């Protein structure tokens, strides 16, 4: 059969990226347009837009393989905000081909990786009249804001969405140098720390030195989050985090990881982090607390009356997102901050860490599929240090494990200006998904589901 | 003679405020429009717009009183940025009368206080055909950005600007409860602290915990600026600051100052500041270091690659702005901040603290003028905790002291949203300026100048 060409997929991607489906700021109309565009691409599977209490989801199914396993393909059509437009070298909502990559907001997270699955399924159906497995599709529009309405939707439609396995087109290969599969991802809990003092901005001359400055207080809060050893200095933060076993340390040590290349790839003067751990251990095994942004006043002579920091904690092991939020809140409240008021607002989306057993049949089939597409290269079992909230949800509600099988790569400036996607991943991705579906068809569906639930 | 009415001045102010002369962001065209508008108001004094290397100045002079002193009236036609528009209850560039006050950006700082002087001089000339003193006018367009081009302009035009006394229509009465004169103002030096790490924003999951976060580092910098006692913890910062004498403490203690009313007026939960000093001592006698704004990232899941804090230090005594900038820079460089790069950029405008002798003839004439307008009220000699860079310049170049004689009041939300001006100050201000000019006319000009230079 003939797979869609890169040019065909790039033409589709150009249309799709042009719909600025930034779930933090786009109006409902734009989000509906993106959903509708995608539903049209799913015509072969009765693609349609379904309402939720937030932005709609895109659904579809092709169930013409009785007796074969049923796979729920998950992805999202929303994208991150652009951030500072001045830092983009190309227009964010216009795809630009730049050598081997295509640039634009969402090309890798995850409009490109979703598109290639849809194009593949359509082409296989057109060529063969059938697919090796039953496919259901659930493409949401709120992944980048923590999927606030997905849980209710999935619970309400659990029977329709029932599957033996979820395969997520979201996620990313760890790096471009070898094929990899993710066997774990970090959890997430996010919050805003809001410090207020006066009832308005005050002139820094006429009032300076007589009232507390919320920026100073917020800086004290942020500075207190980590100790001099780089560890998170919030009491109770590490509850549920197991110390690394010598075996796991040895496994990580065996991974071909060039710290200097990593440092250079992000352009930092030196790597930094929690004392006593290697960069890879910090990345894959240790929870983090990062301030994602801080805002107060402007560059002129005021004492701002309000200062806000947005904080995200990435969780591992059995860390409980609610307990972590409570620990951070308690820590902030325990600080002596005269003259200001401090509040901590925890975001709705709270996700525990996720794992899939490396022996799970889906991991074995996926490994075989990658070995077919990347002959002679060993498939690395990696950790997604990011968060995929849907995986926990699907396990809880559908009883199905999620295999992350994205052809994004983690260095493609996800969530940052100048996001890009390697064009070769279109073809590699389509060949790999085809091999995966073919491999999964040989499994007894119940066997897949049983291991999924048990692991 | 008939003074202009409030309605007449409000009509003029409406036109003037509508020209959004924000010197941080307005185009040259808008600044020229404001200057031109003001020059037309100075037609009685050959008003004109003159070029500088930045925004133009407005000049004028009426020199028809030979033998009488010459007064240079100073003010500015530029205004502060609006800040967050959401915090304004009225459109910033449209005057709105709200009971006893008029609202709008620049109404009190200092379009209103300048307008009343021009209207008064014009009316006096129309009524009497002469003024009691010679008047020169210099209204600049860069006061709110630290007057970067004023020094060169004043030096180049020193002979034309020569005066026995400068009277500034900029500044403010300390509070609405009694007439006051300023005998000192704080100096200023401002800087940006810029922390950078990676060469782009990084996903806080995919990279979190492995590279330094510039927000954490900047928070550590800001948190290090003050000790737990609220004092500035930068070595050398207090060089040139004399400890308060028991006499000065007694003077300040004798000022009728209601700390609880002050606290309530700005809406803070409690006053706060340097330990060992009263609120009034902190305000009038102690230097400060305030972070005016901080910016990094946005509210989404990144590790920002850059974080910036804008800092202003208000200076007293003989603190040297360059030495303070160097002390802050040295302090920041001395901090251990692994994995980031830190730079401190000091702004161009640097102003030492300013004083005028309370026995200066200008202060005595001004006191008499205020006593005439506010009968039965004692005139308070106060300190402007803000900064008036022009005063130092005029002393250096013209050898003339500056009397601050503004009819703004310090609580009128200078530099903040919802700036306002008390309408009654139009009439009070015109009567007071008239009495001041009349009083000054009785002085031997050389006597005024001599004390000015000597004090």
Strands side by side in the biggest sheet of chain A: 1-2-6-3-7-17
Give me the CATH architecture of the largest domain in chain A, please.
Answer: 3-Layer(aba) Sandwich
Give the overall shape of chain A, derived from the CA principal axes: globular
Query: Structural class, from helix and strand content of chain A?
Result: alpha+beta
What's the CATH class label of the largest domain in chain A? Alpha Beta
Multimeric organization: homodimer
Largest sheet of chain A: 6 strands, mixed
What's the total number of strands of chain A? 18
Instruction: Report mean pLDDT of chain A, rounded to a whole number.
Output: 94
Binned, the helix content of chain A reads 25-40%
In words, what does this structure look like?
The structure is a homodimer. Chain A has about 450 residues and is an alpha+beta fold. Chain A folds into 2 domains: about 5-185 and about 355-455, 3-Layer(aba) Sandwich (Aminopeptidase); about 185-240 and about 285-350, 2-Layer Sandwich (Alpha-Beta Plaits), CATH 3.30.70. Helices cover about 35% and strands about 20% of the residues of chain A. Chain A has 14 helices and 18 strands. In chain A, the strands form 5 sheets. A 6-stranded mixed sheet of chain A has the order 1-2-6-3-7-17, sandwiched between helices. In chain A, a hairpin with a 2-residue loop joins strand 4 and strand 5 (about 100-105). In chain A, helix 1 (about 5-15) crosses helix 3 (about 105-130), helix 3 (about 105-130) crosses helix 13 and helix 4 runs parallel beside helix 12. The longest helix of chain A has 22 residues, at about 105-130. In chain A, about 55% of the residues are buried. The model of chain A is unreliable at about 445-455 (pLDDT under 50). At the A-B interface, strand 9, strand 10, helix 6, helix 9 and strand 11 of A face strand 9, strand 10, helix 6, helix 9 and strand 11 of B. Strand 11 of chain A pairs antiparallel with strand 11 of chain B, so a sheet runs across the interface.
């Amino acid at each position: 059969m003939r797979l869609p060409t890169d040019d065909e997929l790039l033409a589709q991607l150009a249309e799709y990226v042009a719909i600025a489906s930034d779930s933090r700021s786009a109006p409902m109309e734009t989000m509906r347009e993106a959903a509708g565009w995608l539903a049209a691409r799913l015509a072969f599977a009765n693609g349609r837009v379904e309402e939720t209490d937030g932005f709609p989801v895109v659904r579809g199914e092709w169930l013409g393989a009785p007796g074969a396993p049923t796979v729920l393909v998950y992805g999202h059509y929303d994208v991150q905000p652009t951030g500072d437009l001045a830092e983009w070298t190309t227009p964010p909502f216009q795809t630009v081909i730049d050598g081997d990559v295509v640039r634009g907001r969402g090309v890798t997270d995850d409009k490109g990786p979703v598109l290639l699955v849809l194009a593949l399924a359509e082409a296989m159906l057109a060529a063969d009249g059938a697919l090796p497995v039953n496919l259901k599709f659930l493409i949401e529009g709120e992944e980048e804001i923590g999927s606030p309405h997905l849980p209710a939707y999935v619970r309400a439609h659990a029977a329709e969405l029932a599957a033996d396995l979820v395969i997520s087109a979201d996620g990313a290969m760890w790096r471009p140098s070898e094929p990899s599969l993710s066997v774990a991802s970090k959890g997430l809990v996010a919050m805003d720390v809001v410090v207020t003092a006066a009832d308005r901005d005050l002139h820094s001359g006429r009032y300076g030195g007589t009232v507390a400055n919320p920026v100073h207080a917020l800086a004290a809060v942020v500075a207190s989050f980590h100790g001099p050893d780089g560890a998170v200095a919030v009491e109770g933060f590490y509850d549920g985090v197991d110390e690394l076993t010598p075996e796991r340390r040895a496994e990580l040590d065996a991974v071909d990881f060039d710290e200097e290349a990593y440092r250079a790839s992000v352009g930092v003067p030196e790597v930094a982090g929690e004392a006593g751990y290697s960069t890879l251990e910090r990345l894959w095994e240790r929870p983090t607390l990062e301030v994602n942004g801080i805002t107060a006043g402007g560059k002129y002579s005021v004492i701002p009356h309000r200062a806000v920091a947005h904080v995200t904690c990435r969780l591992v092991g059995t860390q409980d997102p609610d307990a972590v939020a409570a620990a951070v809140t308690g820590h902030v409240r325990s600080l002596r901050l005269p003259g200001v008021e401090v509040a901590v607002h925890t975001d709705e989306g709270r996700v525990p860490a996720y794992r899939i057993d490396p022996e799970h049949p889906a991991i074995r089939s996926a490994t075989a599929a990658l070995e077919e597409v990347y002959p002679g290269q060993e498939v690395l079992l990696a950790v997604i240090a990011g968060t995929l909230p849907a995986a926990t949800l699907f396990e809880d509600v559908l009883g199905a494990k999620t295999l992350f099988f994205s052809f994004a790569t983690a260095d493609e400036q996800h969530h940052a200006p100048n996001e890009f996607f390697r064009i070769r991943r279109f073809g590699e991705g389509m060949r790999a998904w085809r091999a995966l579906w073919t491999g999964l068809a040989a499994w007894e569906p119940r066997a897949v589901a049983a291991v999924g639930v048990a692991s």
